């Protein structure tokens, strides 16, 4: 089974509108972290936001917020007031077994969502 | 601001050549990673290291090898490049388990 599932290969949004990018995950660990990254066409990976499994409040970073629903195992990224510069590929990722040494510190990535912001 | 550097940025090389992709970070991070990514696709972990003299294979089998002789340096080597190795290679590092990975700009490798 996929550990990270992003079901939207591509999304379009109008400038200044909000958009939600979906992410569901699968883990049996109690302690894990969820990350969102942005990858522009230039190829670099830019960290956007982090949510720990024990965090009670949804993470927010400027125009980015994470809609964390633990029981549903979903961690959707919400981008408010979209800008043309938000056009990029967005990846959801998970790190399982936080605090455990050895193999538990790797990030597993989803397949990504290509977001296009239009005028 | 992350300080992790990859060279070269682009590399076109013929089949059978030996190549080394360089990755260095100045943040003193113990944990370093190599990911492989085909265009528009997900990232796959191919190697990681938890510190000097520690290297492990990742989830995706790779013919490449890595070394970690110094904390700041984590080079990846292909002994004999093949067209199937054509991809983008991303190096990353982190200090703590709940901290984000800091990525380099990547090396886009083309093997002809």
List keywords for this structure.
heterodimer, A: 119 residues, mainly beta, six-stranded mixed beta sheet, four-stranded antiparallel beta sheet, 50% strand, globular, B: 112 residues, seven-stranded mixed beta sheet
**Number of E strands of chain B:** 11
Distance between the termini of chain B: 36 Å
Distance between the ends of chain A: 38 Å
Tell me about the largest β-sheet of chain B.
7 strands, mixed
Low-confidence stretches of chain B: none
Average predicted local confidence, pLDDT of chain B: 93
Summarize the amount of helix of chain A as a percent range.
Answer: under 10%
Shape of chain A: globular
Output the helix-strand order of chain B.
EEEEEEEEEEE
Provide the structure class of chain B: mainly beta
Structure notes:
The complex is a heterodimer of chains A (119) and B (112). Chain A is mainly β and 119 residues long. Chain A has no helices and twelve strands. Chain A has strands spanning 4-5, 10-14, 19-21, 24-25, 32-39, 46-52, 60-61, 64-69, 74-79, 88-96, 107-109, 113-118. The relative contact order of chain A is 0.33. Chain B has 112 residues and is an all-beta fold. Chain B is 0% helix and 49% strand. In chain B, strands 2, 4, 5, 6, 9, 10 and 11 form a seven-stranded mixed sheet that branches. In chain B, strands 1-3-8-7 form a four-stranded antiparallel sheet, with no helix packed on it. Chain B is globular. At the A-B interface, strand 5, strand 6, strand 10 and strand 11 of A face strand 4, strand 5, strand 9 and strand 10 of B.
